[in-house]
Amino acid sequence: MSFNKILIRWYSNNKRHLPWRETTDPYKIWLSEIILQQTQVKQGLPYYEAFIKSFPSVFDLAKADENTVLKLWQGLGYYSRARNLHSAAKYVVNELNGVFPSNYKDLLKLKGVGDYTASAIASICFNENTAVVDGNVYRVLSRYFGISTPINTTKGVKEFKTLAQRVMDTRQPADYNQAIMEFGAIQCTPKNPDCSVCPFNNSCVALQKNVINELPVKLKAAKPKKKYFNFLVFISEDGKILLEKRVGKGIWQNLYQFPLIETPKKITLKRFESLVKEHPKLKNQSFELRLYNEEPIIHKLSHQHLHTTFYIVSVETLDNGIPKEKINAYPVPILIGNFIETFNFN
Predict the structure, then answer these.
(1) Residue ranges of the domains in the chain?
(2) What tens digit of pLDDT does each residue of 133-173 get?
(3) Closest alpha carbon to 88 in 71, 67, 106, 76
(4) Answer CATH for 3-214 from 1.10.340.30, 2.130.10.10, 3.40.30.10, 3.90.470.20
(5) What fold does the segment set 225-342 form as a domain?
(6) Is 288 a catalytic residue?
(7) Which of 75, 103, 131, 308 could make an S-S bridge to 297, C-beta 3.0–4.6 Å?
(8) Which of 33, 95, 262, 295 is catalytic?
(9) What is the pTM of this model?
(10) What is the pLDDT of residues 242-253, one digit of tens each?
(11) Cα 163 versus chain centre, distance
């Protein structure tokens, strides 16, 4: 039996029952694929269900305001996905009359949709013969065929896409693509896969050569930079707080945060107090500064590690402050969200 037939048979017996597998609606498939980028199914499922409940159709998502979308996305990270999701929904509604593109080439025109997502939607919804290649597929193909070309190189991307296209089942592209992704997710796992029950244990090159843990090969990324964030949690006597909307490009674009002072390294409370005095909100009024966390909270992102300290700044009044009981209405990065959950604003 061929590689693709074995995969599809395995899938029919082992697949997880997930809501987006019960439909070929391109809106729901697109939504699930965007959510599941950089996110495991168990984490992404509640978000998918929340989005479908709040925005049953692409029209509902398109007419929502961005704050609502970002708030619902809060905790998933990589917030550009949410912004692109919202932008693409508006494009589909305003430019395409609410009808999703029905082929790989046109799907690529949607903001935030790349080769993998376009392939998934095209094959699952429109039965187009275009193979998906994601982290799971890289792992399955590299191990089964014994390929050591680094997956994060131009050569590797091209080689694996060509191979994926060659071995797919062109009569069942939807089932095949979902099968190979599911196989990588629950059988051919990154660490300690149970090869004793694998249907390919007699033909997998990596198993035969005992290099399971060495494949796929990925070149090491640059060492993450250290940044030192100092957030000012202003609280006025009448229960107002201060949030600022992040503008400009960046992973937290259009999210809200407490006023931020970034320093080149960890700073003493005494030294920091002298910086705080220069803040525009503290002109002509006294304040009390209190360090909230003695040790910085290290928030790890793919390209940088944020060494984060929160300071409580008690003041008499706050211009443009918001009532503290409304703080949960604002979309914030998970780093800020975790602080809000643990700090008592009552």
Answers:
(1) 3-214, 225-342
(2) 999 999 999 999 999 999 999 999 999 999 999 999 999 99
(3) 106
(4) 1.10.340.30
(5) Nucleoside Triphosphate Pyrophosphohydrolase (3.90.79)
(6) no
(7) 308
(8) 33
(9) 0.85
(10) 999 998 778 889
(11) 27
